[in-house]
Amino acid sequence: MKDYLEIKTLLVEGLLEEFPQAEGDEAEAVVSHWLQASQNKIPFLTDSIRNYFEKEISNFLPSTHKNMVNESEGFYQFKLPINWKSIPYPPPKNPLFNFIDLFAGIGGFRLAMQNQNGKCVFSCEWDSYAKKTYETNFGEIPFGDIRKIDELEIPDHDVLCAGFPCQPFSLAGVSARNSRNTAHGFACETQGTLFFDIARIVEAKKPKVLFLENVRNIVNHDKGKTFSIIKSTIESLGYNFSYKVVDASPLVPQKRVRTYMVCTPKNMPEFSFPEIQGEPLPLKSILEDVVDESFTISDRLWEGHQRRTRNNLSRGTGFTAFCADIEKPSNTIVARYGKDGKECLIPQKESNPRMLTPRECARLQGFPEPFIIPVAKTAAYRQFGNSVAVPVVTEIAKAIVAYLDICKGK
Ligand SMILES: C[S@@+](CC[C@H](N)C(=O)[O-])C[C@H]1O[C@@H](n2cnc3c(N)ncnc32)[C@H](O)[C@@H]1O
């Protein structure tokens, strides 16, 4: 039996030779999506490429299975001769429901949904480093720019998951953009409009549930106008719109307050969010015992942090960098954390404070230990800063699965 990576590489090489018109990046996404769910609709996958894959894969099938090669139902999904052992989170064998993972990042949603026995049938993410982390852990390469994907080529799904890009809506994004006098929110062509890519997919595919995540401030952005456009757009597509602002700190040792939205068809009951309460967890619970010196910040950086903190405190504005209190949850880890670590510096007895390690950032977001971090630390900090708190998404995912059960009975 061939390992996932080996078989994927063979098919991608063959695909590019046989069909030179296939684009390199998307060819990998096509092959890996096919290996996960060959019977599904897959963007850019023509009938002739599908036939080519089936012919190629038959070379790897044990002879007893050769006569089953053309069976359409179920065969490839579970019986392709692929060894998923090198992949920590392979597709589930007997899924209860399926979902798509838009703006997938490193798969925080996917982890939570797969844990509930959900099967991902389509993912998209355009950052090549995030794609690498995603593939290493899930054995699938997401498609790239969502704006280039025809919604009709996306397979049917029960749940649409999307933590859509938050820069144009966050407080930091707004103030930086205001000061540069540039557009933000829906007026920002390249980022704000991505919400409308979600809307066009919803309109075409009508999933049973939409599960969205964004920054806390999306609720207040532009005096509430942005949020009201999101709500009314979703309602106009035939959905109830429920949302809740949740702090992750009872589940992970990090103050991370985010807006979660779950939308369900108008002819079905509204969704109720689970309660997420409890004492905040202490940062010390996720710290590594031994950390390399390279994570200790330099004298220059530490002096700069202290100087800016003093100036800002005296003016009563702006950034302050203190050492974290490890008995309490950390501040929110953001994508830029790797630049200077000011959101969370760990005090050390005999030297300057240190940055968190990428593994500690993974733990702060509730990623389990088997999750592989295959990228260098700058990319890893950005990826975990952008991601979701997996245990929060998991709690909401459990309630969504219970909701889907109710739908089945209706
Ligand atoms: C807030 S992050 C989502 C992180 C994700 N929920 C996770 O658990 O890791 C938004 C992601 O959208 C991606 N993105 C932005 N614009 C995109 C586009 N046009 N097409 C595909 N992905 C895009 C970014 O690279 C980023 O990783």
From TrEMBL:
<dbReference type="InterPro" id="IPR018117">
    <property type="entry name" value="C5_DNA_meth_AS"/>
</dbReference>
<dbReference type="InterPro" id="IPR050750">
    <property type="entry name" value="C5-MTase"/>
</dbReference>
<dbReference type="Pfam" id="PF00145">
    <property type="entry name" value="DNA_methylase"/>
</dbReference>
<protein>
    <recommendedName>
        <fullName>Cytosine-specific methyltransferase</fullName>
        <ecNumber>2.1.1.37</ecNumber>
    </recommendedName>
</protein>
<dbReference type="InterPro" id="IPR031303">
    <property type="entry name" value="C5_meth_CS"/>
</dbReference>
<comment type="similarity">
    <text>Belongs to the class I-like SAM-binding methyltransferase superfamily. C5-methyltransferase family.</text>
</comment>
<feature type="active site">
    <location>
        <position position="166"/>
    </location>
</feature>
<dbReference type="GO" id="GO:0003886">
    <property type="term" value="F:DNA (cytosine-5-)-methyltransferase activity"/>
</dbReference>
<keyword id="KW-0808">Transferase</keyword>
<keyword id="KW-0949">S-adenosyl-L-methionine</keyword>
<keyword id="KW-0680">Restriction system</keyword>
<dbReference type="InterPro" id="IPR029063">
    <property type="entry name" value="SAM-dependent_MTases_sf"/>
</dbReference>
<keyword id="KW-0489">Methyltransferase</keyword>
<dbReference type="GO" id="GO:0009307">
    <property type="term" value="P:DNA restriction-modification system"/>
</dbReference>
<dbReference type="InterPro" id="IPR001525">
    <property type="entry name" value="C5_MeTfrase"/>
</dbReference>
<dbReference type="GO" id="GO:0032259">
    <property type="term" value="P:methylation"/>
</dbReference>
